[in-house]
Amino acid sequence: MAGYIRSVLECVPNFSEGRREAVISRLVSAASGPGVRVLDVSSDPDHNRTVLTLAGEEEALIGGLLGLYEAALASIDLRTHQGVHPRLGAVDVTPFVPLGATPMATAVHAAKMLGVEVARRFELPVFLYEDAAVRGERRSLAAIRRGGFEGLAGKLADVAWAPDFGPSRPHPSGGATVIGARFFLIACNAILDTADVEVARAVARAVRESAGGLPAVRALGFYLASRGQAQVSMNLVDFRRTSLALALDRVREEAAAHGARVVASEIVGLLPRQAALDVVRETLLLPALDPSRLLEERLRATSAQV
Amino acid sequence: MAGYIRSVLECVPNFSEGRREAVISRLVSAASGPGVRVLDVSSDPDHNRTVLTLAGEEEALIGGLLGLYEAALASIDLRTHQGVHPRLGAVDVTPFVPLGATPMATAVHAAKMLGVEVARRFELPVFLYEDAAVRGERRSLAAIRRGGFEGLAGKLADVAWAPDFGPSRPHPSGGATVIGARFFLIACNAILDTADVEVARAVARAVRESAGGLPAVRALGFYLASRGQAQVSMNLVDFRRTSLALALDRVREEAAAHGARVVASEIVGLLPRQAALDVVRETLLLPALDPSRLLEERLRATSAQV
């Protein structure tokens, strides 16, 4: 399939700037380069954060990412950064995701190579997470990020939180960075018809796995000043275990239990096609639905026949 | 885009055999040929009907379709045919659908060319419908088909129902055929948890446009002997006016009002990708969702960049 060769990776760096357009476009340019495809740029002013979706092979991606780290460290100062989303660094988190037949080991390799180089060039503490984690308790991004930039110096002073690469002190303006390898993650935000962030937090607690909610779901509640509304921000870390349709349904139910309603949702970044088809299948009660049932896919698949 | 050139048509012949596998595969082979892509074959034993989805340019498609009509007339006898779906002929209805940038006029032209040739070669009465209709009252397939094969001789004897091409008497075993040009049609069946066909009929009446229901929705209620269940069989003739999600929702509501539940649904034939994305958009309350938000599409679209 087009773009699916054994060494292609997706990479989804999240950097801590979602407001200054000139900075965002400078950072996107810095990440671009030969062999790097920019698939998507999603910025959020309330989160003050941008999710960049790149694709390419390891070497090209690492080249682009080093450019991104350099530009981000020159443009973003966490000491003055404001935003509702938890963050530890200027380039906060950089996951590699294997595409198609690419094995997870390729993503893990890329994460470690990038980590070594980022630590060396920029004297930045690097934590490895999820499938790239060297220590079990570091699989969890939430655990690594707990305390945020503001608590980072204290955390790094604890030997249990010595970074995987780089110094045991924060970069003064850039904090630290978390680099890893994982399966597709779907970031989905539900906007509520209330400004009460406590409702969003209660809903998030009810749906997230760590509090006994839905498998493979992480969730936080935020207040969006730009809209005057509260938001339930979810990460579905395995849409095969909990689908988008189910997660949203539970958010709706929990919101209703608090007298609130979901008025809109948004997908941050790109959606794997099968995750979209799963929503269709579940909503319509179809026994199955795979891409081969789509007219356009069938036309493509059969175009060699003519 | 792959397969989308200005003269490509989809063609969806429905023939009156959904049980005898050997006959079905003979008919599919007969329709195949140089330049004809067989995109899908969906057979239903209760309807005793097969929906074949083909794609190609006019000349190639007409070549394949003439093969299909010939084989169908040799294998199917409407005098002994049983099935719950309304039908008028061995090849009951053959719509052409413009794909991509192909204009509707190309589909209308193909319908008329096929109609002339089918009438001449097989002495089969041909009615033109929808965008290919020459007379306003023949736009409606349901109006043309009313009375079925059993009422066909009487209908053709009425000058108001003289066929557009061919003789004013039924083909003895093959009846008549309806050929036309139209927009994409989505055939979606909802299976109820009741064997009571009257419930399915009441639901169908409530949702179909002709009885004041949903725009661009046709619906009938059937009993499926093979499953012992009643079915609401819908055609969405313009999913931009009434989406799959809305239609199914209404079927659920109406069924509930009759104490029944939708236990499954099925899509007959192929689904246009945008119709699938519309279900996702509506279910998740996304402001918009187009194919460019899918990871695989973005990978394809950017593959030239590398």
Describe the protein's topology:
Two copies of one chain form a homodimer.
Chain A: E1 8-11, E2 14-15, H1 21-31, E3 37-44, E4 49-57, H2 58-75, E5 91-98, H3 104-122, E6 126-130, H4 141-145, H5 152-157, E7 177-181, E8 186-192, H6 197-207, E9 217-224, E10 229-236, H7 244-257, E11 262-268, H8 273-284, H9 295-302
Parallel strand pairs in A: 5-7, 6-7
Antiparallel strand pairs in A: 1-4, 1-5, 2-4, 2-5, 3-4, 8-10, 8-11, 9-10
Helix pairs in contact in A: 1-2, 2-3, 6-7
Distance, first to last CA of chain A = 19 Å
Strand element count of chain A: 11
Largest interface in this structure: A-B, 53 and 53 residues
Report the oligomer. Answer: homodimer
Alpha plus pi helix count of chain A: 9
Whole-number average pLDDT of chain A? 94
Decide which structural class fits the backbone of chain A: alpha+beta
Helical content band of chain A: 25-40%
Residue share in β-strands of chain A: 15-25%
- What's the alpha carbon Rg of chain A, rounded to whole Å? 20 Å
Task: Report low-confidence residues of chain A grouped into runs of 5 or more.
Answer: none
Can you walk me through this structure?
2 copies of one chain form a homodimer. By secondary structure, the first copy, chain A, is an alpha+beta fold. The first copy, chain A, is 34% helix and 23% strand. Chain A contains 9 helices and 11 strands. In chain A, strands 1, 2, 3, 4, 5, 6 and 7 form a 7-stranded mixed sheet that branches. A 4-stranded antiparallel sheet of chain A has the order 9-10-8-11. In chain A, a hairpin with a 4-residue loop joins strand 3 (37-44) and strand 4. The longest helix of chain A has 19 residues, at 104-122. Chain A starts with 7 loop residues before the first strand and ends with a helix. The model of chain A has no long low-confidence stretch (mean pLDDT 94). Chains A and B meet through strand 3, strand 4, helix 7, strand 11 and helix 8 of A and strand 3, strand 4, helix 7, strand 11 and helix 8 of B.
